[in-house]
Amino acid sequence: MFRCNIRGQQEALSVLDRAVSSGHIAHAYLFIGPEGVGKRTCAIEFAKALNCQEGSCSRGCQGGIPCGQCPTCRAIADGNFPDVSVVSPSGATIRIEQVREVRRSAGLKAHTSGWRVWVFEDSDKMTEEAANALLRTLEEPPPRSVMVLTTSNPFLVLPTIVSRCQVVRFGHVSLPEINAILTERFDLSDQDRELFASLSGGIPAKAIRLARGEERQARERALDLLRKIGTRDTLEILKISESLAEDRTSLVGYLEMWTSWYRDILILKETGDTGLLLNRDRQEEISGVACENSTDKLISAIQILQEALNALRQNANARLCMDSVLLRLDRLLGDPRRKEN
């Protein structure tokens, strides 16, 4: 049996449980799902299950359950186990030099009698040269070795790589599960817990960051910037775009927050049901904006933001993307009288 301390991913865990219980371990897996739902955590736990000294998986893989306490499990958790490696992007990409090192180590004898595991984080960020180099290893995998690739953008992974992996799908986590995670980890009021779960969009990592206070300031800044759209001249808008584009990861977060904001405005305008809002603590402001904008404008704003998110996920130029988003939103939502002056 394979166990992993993540919630709301029963389908993914069942796939890995069947593999561990039967002993039929694929040479490569592709973990597909949104960022922050536990793909990396699950990959590390899978590596523990294959190597745990107390379980049986390392001695034939029949029902191995990682104990989490033996020297091997602790070393894997700390990133110090010689036969388990995590390959992360170096800067913006996973480079061919990193894959060459994996290929080199794959040709060497294992340090232990267990399984060698390589976890590739954000595998969609491999350069073309790196992806082609990895493909050669996937075509001729070394014995008792597993490669786990994770991605939130599977359409950017080389199709020939996808075809050589067993796909394991992770999804968004339900609100009750998010609430349970927050209840276990934090001492929150019911109001805060429900707000953070709602704002998380089904992403446990985001809910945890909100509960820790790590995303609250970012949310305030995102909403403050959104209020400025339509009230600034073009030069000021381009300056805002320049500052946002410097951090691609934060930029995606801003666009997601703005999307949830306009989604709430649209929902309230069309249904009047405040219980459907994600930004529940901003009900009064949302109501005011809903009265000021037409349904068509709100739908167009959401479409602009979704197009930008899709473009960024396909590695579009962040600065050009933000210039376009902010200028289009300004044109759409700004006061026409301001533009005439």
Structure write-up:
The protein is globular and about 65 Å long. The chain has three domains: 10-169, P-loop containing nucleotide triphosphate hydrolases (Rossmann fold), CATH 3.40.50; 173-214; 221-340, Zinc Finger, Delta Prime, domain 3, CATH 1.20.272. The chain has 16 helices and five strands. It has helices at residues 10-22, 39-51, 71-78, 96-106, 128-139, 159-162, 175-185, 190-199, 204-212, 216-228, 234-245, 248-271, 283-292, 295-313, 318-333, 336-340, and strands at 28-32, 84-87, 116-120, 145-151, 166-169. With 341 residues, it is an alpha/beta fold. A five-stranded parallel β-sheet has the order 2-3-4-1-5, sandwiched between helices. The longest helix is centred in the C-terminal third of the chain and has 24 residues, at 248-271.
Task: Offer a quick outline of the entry.
This protein is α/β, with parallel strands linked by helices and 341 residues long. It is 56% helix and 7% strand.
How many structural domains are formed by the residues? Answer: 3
Largest sheet: 5 strands, parallel
CATH H-tier superfamily of the largest domain = P-loop containing nucleotide triphosphate hydrolases
**CATH architect. name of the largest domain:** 3-Layer(aba) Sandwich
Give the strand content: 5-15%
